[in-house]
Specification:
Blueprint lengths: L2 E4 L10 E4 L1 H23 L4 H15 L12 H4 L10 H15 L12 E4 H20 L4 H19 L10 H14 L6 E4 L5 E6 L3 H5 L6 H8 L2 H9 L3 E5 L10 E7 L11 H5 L1 H5 L1
Antiparallel strand pairs: 1-4, 2-3, 4-5, 5-7, 6-7
Helix pairs in contact: 1-4, 1-5, 1-6, 2-4, 2-5, 4-5, 5-9
């Protein structure tokens, strides 16, 4: 089987710069996600909702060593008025915001409503993934850990349904998906190295040798929770690419492996979802040369 390598090693990939507007980011990312998660806790575990929000707020407060905004000087109630579940917990939202501003290394005297400022890609990823990790971490310390993980997965699926376009399949076949990866690696994904196979018998094999998400949050300790927030979504993403696509994966960089091993199956061609051995993926670099 033939493989193509895409991407090049870039040790400075996480230091590339982009602009962020702090309040807009909080509403589109942190608040939207937390609002949906609170709705799930309220629906399936209403008896622990107060305990969970208390635990989560304490977690945020223990991590945010600087108070950037407080209720006496910031209208948090108006800011979260559109979020049906989060608006019941303005102090939690404020703690969430202070934690975000610490991650963003909020500049002094910034106009929160209007100014944007420059951050690195590392900080941009941390601004999303740290909150997701802490939200799940606190949930797993409020209810049974396995139940917390399953609830979080269900919440994630619903969140993606709510926020993702319901247009037709993005790709007609696996060949189109592979070509999109090569275009991304050339244009907008510095530091991402992939080995991509030819499509054979309705299967596309992929080995990812780098993970910028893992590099950005490597100091977070719980690998199982990191896997849930970083890797679980890949399964649903395959379905969103085409309703007939199924992704299988056994090893990830997040969990400590040297690479991520993925297979994309087109079930219109074959319903056999057998995943190759680790030896198969380990040999890819040699085969591709």
């Amino acid at each position: 089987m033939k493989f193509r390598k895409s991407g090049v090693h870039d040790p400075l990939a996480l230091e590339s710069k982009r602009n962020i507007q702090p309040i807009e980011h909080a509403k589109l990312s942190q608040f939207t996600r937390l609002n949906c998660l609170l709705g799930f806790v309220k629906k399936f575990y209403p008896e622990v909702l107060e305990e969970y929000t208390t635990n989560l707020q304490r977690r945020y407060d223990s991590l945010a060593t600087t108070t950037y905004v407080q209720r006496s000087t910031f209208d948090i109630v108006s800011l979260i008025s559109e979020f049906d579940s989060l608006k019941e917990f303005p102090d939690l939202a404020l703690s969430n915001l202070n934690y975000l501003f610490q991650i963003l290394q909020l500049p002094a005297n910034v106009d929160l409503e209007n100014d944007s400022f420059e951050i690195t890609q590392r900080i941009q990823l941390q601004a999303v993934l740290y909150h997701k990790y802490q939200n799940l971490f606190s949930l797993a310390n409020t209810i049974d850990r396995n139940e917390a993980i399953e609830l979080y997965k269900a919440y994630h699926d619903e969140f993606m349904r709510m926020t993702t376009s319901t247009q037709k399949d993005r790709f007609d076949n696996l060949e189109e998906l592979a070509e999109q990866w090569f275009q991304e690696d050339t244009i907008s994904s510095p530091g991402l190295i992939r080995y991509v196979s030819e499509v054979k018998d309705g299967k596309l094999f992929l080995r990812k040798d780098t993970c910028l998400w893992n590099d950005a949050i490597e100091e977070l300790e719980d690998k199982e929770l990191k896997y849930v927030i970083c890797c679980y979504g890949d399964y649903g993403a395959a379905k969103r690419d085409n309703k007939h696509f199924v992704m299988t994966m056994k090893h990830t960089i997040i969990e400590g492996h040297n690479y991520c091993d993925c297979v994309y199956h087109d079930t219109r061609v074959s319903t056999d979802l057998t995943h190759p051995s680790d030896d198969f993926f380990a040999s890819i670099e040699t085969e591709s040369n």
